[in-house]
Amino acid sequence: MHKTLSMAVLTIAVVLFSSCGKDVETETKEVIKPVKYGSVTYLGGSQSYTFSGMAQSSAQAKLSFRTSGLVEQINVKAGDRIQSGMVIAKLDDSDAQLSLQQAKASFDNAGVQRNNAESNLTRVRELYQVGSASLAEYEQAKAQFASALSQFESSKKAYDLQQSQLSYFTVKAPVSGIISNVTIEENELVQAGSPIVTLNSGNDIELQVAIPEVFISRVVEGQGVSVTFSTLQGQTFEGNVIEVPFSANNSSTYPVKIAVLKASSQIRPGMTADVTFNFQNESSAETLIAPIEAVGEDNTGHFVYLLTKTENNYTAVKTAVGIGEITAEGFEIRYGLQDGDLVATAGIPSLFDGRKVTLLN
What we know:
alpha+beta; conserved putative lor/sdh protein from methanococcus maripaludis s2 fold; six-stranded antiparallel β-barrel; 27% helix; five-stranded mixed β-sheet
């Protein structure tokens, strides 16, 4: 009896020890969950947002060849200042030169045939007038001259066309300016109409800024902005919105044009700029907004998982919040959060108060 009781006690002890061991092991191997997150921000009132832009000349042209071919010569590089009429690049025109020579030979031969037919017509006309040639001979001479003249005119047009097309193998600067970009290399095959260089010829500086669709309705022509360049430390320039597009580009952003007022001569096309917009909304006061996906609800009310920074990661802290109206941007937050707080926006049911998490970019 005592032996049986001892075995039972031993078995219970082993089970309890094993259970404790599993708990320790579970705590030791706690899984850190990656989570998506969003920011709590103010909307309404006066808000400033900064977007990146690229400087360009107010007059910018992308030059190209009018025919396809093999690049034989490039005479410029990015940053070069060039004069109007300068040869920028040339294609191999050996085949075109041969075609021009053939057209010239046909044109010269047609000229000889025309002159011979004209001389013959003059001779037959004189003979016809004195009765030494028949009417049929005279009519035949006129027909031969008309045919030779037509062939001559046709050959001349073909020769002129070949001369004109020969110019297609050369790109010249239409105006003076600065080369901001070169996209071809020698011995490269290029297609007609493909840009080979970008020529900036205007003295004024403009910026092209990609504005997300959520903000584009708040951008209007004439709106003032402030502009800074990372390469020009300590300098801030004023700018005005001069063009707001109606449709977006392929990346779902809208390319807005900004004119830089009193631009410094240090600003060069291609420089990256930070453009700050100050959006005013006088119809409403500032409202603290949290993402819709971040707000959950249980029997105690509405809550979010506030993500607080720890030594190596973040901790999800279940935080009660008071919500107001729902907007396109999220829930109005009346208490419980502050501007700049980070909150989890996905996987809310799998979170619990105090759980360690990492942020998904």
